Amino acid sequence: MNLATRTTRITPSPTLQLSATVKSLVAQGQQVFNFTAGEPWLDSPDEAKDAAISAIQAGFTKYTAVTGIDELKDAIIEKFTRDQGLTYSRAQIVVSCGAKHTLFNLALALFETGDEVIIPAPYWVSYPEQILVADATPVFLPTSESENFAIDLSTLKNLITERTKAIILNSPCNPTGSMYTRKTLEGIASLAIQHNLLVISDEIYEQMVYDDHHHCSIATVHPDMAQQTVIVNGVSKTYSMTGWRIGYAAGPEPILKAMGNIQSQSTSNPTSIAQKAAVGAMQGGRTYIDHLVKELDIRRRAIVTGFNQIEGIHCPMPAGAFYAFPNITGLLGRRYQGQVLSTPFDLANFFLNEAKVACVPGEPFGTNAHLRFSYTESLPVIEEGLQQLTQAIARLE
Ligand SMILES: Cc1ncc(COP(=O)(O)O)c(C=O)c1O
After folding, report:
1. Which atom of ligand 1 is nearest the CA belonging to 15?
2. Which fold has domain 62-282?
3. Is 123 in contact with 140 (CB distance < 8 Å)?
4. Which fold does the domain 6-43+287-394 belong to in CATH?
5. Which atom in ligand 1 lies closest to the alpha carbon of residue 247?
6. Which terminus of the chain is more exposed, N or C, with fewer CB under 10 A?
7. What is the pLDDT of residues 154-169, one digit of tens each?
């Protein structure tokens, strides 16, 4: 039996694969300092758990409206009004089984053969793969660490062709931790308006911002932009609810309607109980989020300071999300037991085998110069992990 060619275009999620490898090492009794996880350590908020338990007890366990229950849509609409000053109707919201599913629906609703979609690199691993599944072509927009991975508008302009259909933005960014300034977003918006491009704005890390950085959605920077933007968000990161699988999109009604139709022929509604849990979380106020971000900030400083004390590593301070993105070019080319470590992948393997430190190599994010470390681990694990790395690096020739 021949598989469809689209299956040959894509690779399985490397981050989920790595997390699985680490879990199996741990199950075998090995101690691993695990920096691969794309999720906070906190338990989901009580408000979410209580709402889910009540939903089960009340028998709220049947199919719901495909695109989400009104109660959740209203909580999402309220969030957009409160946090971004944006106004949406229920018909402009689709709730899906996680933001990854939201993005997948979006790719299927929008893209086809011949379409080009611009993705700033480094990028989240699933964007190019989802575009490829939809038979379209990802076009990478290079950014540089020395410019905080900001988008250079003239580079962006040069990549726009008649086939360009959309640009995907992710601010705060996984994996770089960088955020786009309002000025940059205004520049992107004016190009998007001029060339009639849709902007897909993945704002899943919107709440995880540090120091004096502020999240700004491109949908808000120009009166016409809300009609040209689909915002993607969800409860996974903000409320440590990765397993509940609730993500959502907001944007122009025809696009959201098409996404809903696609979803109606695949998963139908997201889990009824999880939707109720998301309502509970979203109505729960800011205490949970503020605690999470405060803790993350402490871990962010610890890991970045630690990395910058290790010879051969340079680590910029991330403005948002929860990933450190150390530049490891100073270590590439060194040898361990006669083997040259020439790529981030080689180095990540060396760290896993020799330091029992697990991280994600840069290649699937579109960089040959970095590793990604999630700093959702506790401070003692971060400190011990850094120490293990330092010792392992000292053994390199
Ligand atoms: C940038 C980005 N977008 C979307 C997602 C998907 O989140 P979920 O499907 O858990 O809602 C992730 C998860 O790692 C992410 O990092």
Report:
1. 14
2. Aspartate Aminotransferase; domain 2 (3.40.640)
3. yes
4. Aspartate Aminotransferase, domain 1 (3.90.1150)
5. 11
6. N
7. 999 999 999 999 999 9
